[in-house]
Amino acid sequence: MASYSATGSVSVRPYVTVDGQAAPVASDSQWTARQILVVAICFILNMLDGMDVLILSYIAPALSTDWQVTPERLGVVFSAGLAGMAAGGLLIAPMADRFGRRKLILASLVMMAGAMFGSAMAANIGELIVSRFIVGIGIGTVLASMAALTAEYAPPRHRTFAVGFLQAGYPVGATITGFVVANLLPIYGWQAMLLGAAILCALSLPFVWLLLPESIDFLLTRQPRGALEKANRLLRSMGQPAVDALPAKKVHEAHKAGVRGLLADGRATGTILLWMATISGFMTLYFVISWIPKLAVEAGLPAKDAIYAGAIYNIGAFVGVTLIGIAGTHFDLRRLILGYMSAAAVTLVLFGSVAMPLVATLTTAFFIGVFVQGGFNGCYPLAASLYPPEARGTGIGWAMGVGRIGAVIGPMLGGFLLAAKVSLPVIFGVFAVPAVIAGICAAMIRLPKAD
């Protein structure tokens, strides 16, 4: 809903009212074609993100054999991409609140496509690390920008579901990639897999350019050239009344935007707890998604079945993310995250401690995906609910950027533990602990009252 008054008070969501006037407003649960299109495009882009991140874990066994890469060095390659995602979320994503979400998403896609080509052409481990870092910058920026854009365009009643469902695109892309890699890797090699991912990223650019709209909140508050006409065109496409003029810029409320806005109006404690939740959650999440094919081999599965274990994990992730998005519209999202992450700790310990036949191993991998990815991805709509529109891009970007500290630590720590010949039960027990911490921190966050 976009509220606009002569004093310059603006709050933009998918629907519009004009303060002091009787303007018709659609139901807060009604979807329009424009809103569905925005969420669908962001979902597809998140599929590409899942492909670009997880493809490295699928090709890791072949890469290790081809280049004779030790687990420690492979952990650095995993963490390079995650460090780039941290840089993107912390340094680049907040620029969306200043320059526009659409522009930043397009620029990030160009960066991702170019760096993926660089990954495919890498001649040594150093070049691969650099290219993966640049890929990570693009992904970290896109993830935060898409979540903020989806939160704005979704009907208020369905915002939690929309932002949660958006994240389901990530495991869907990873799952499809896993099955494709499992069948084509032995034929074409790991470089061809990276090249195919780069081509898909490049092909997405013209569609995003033509179909993805700019944030209405950005148009009305930052007021770039042609802002009024663009905003009204978007509002009419959603069946909403147009505004007659742009509001006065909210210079006096600048403290609410940017990084300062994350700590303003009593949000400091919630912000710190959210950061602790994302650091801990990312630590477990990226340990699992980076190493599960390799760990499945360590547990005795053939290489192809190990890749399938990674793909099935991501099927579970899709189910978990979708279910928490639906449940979050009816139940307290914070308690759902706690429940999911507690169950994740149990399934992790089970996977690492109990010798199981193939079917049971794959089933356990599925439930790890449900609870680890589902529970952690609840942090995206949680962040969207914690911050106001003018600070939402920065809030999500910083939550996920700071959280990448855990994402960098997780794969590297996993690599060192494997290199030190630590037993699988101990390794999985170690990473069950931050999962529980993430759930507890999320449950302690106090959210602002609904508008």
UniProtKB/TrEMBL annotation:
It comes from Sphingobium scionense. This is Benzoate transport. It is found in: Membrane. The chain crosses the membrane at residues 36-61, 73-92, 104-123, 129-149, 161-182, 188-212, 272-292, 307-326, 338-359, 365-384, 396-420, 426-445. Keywords: Membrane, Transmembrane, Transmembrane helix. Residues 38-450 form the Major facilitator superfamily (MFS) profile domain. One of its GO terms (molecular function) is carboxylic acid transmembrane transporter activity. PANTHER family: CARBOXYLIC ACID TRANSPORTER PROTEIN HOMOLOG. InterPro entries: MFS, MFS_dom, MFS_trans_sf, Sugar_transporter_CS. It is a multi-pass membrane protein. Pfam families: MFS_1. It comes from the Bacteria.
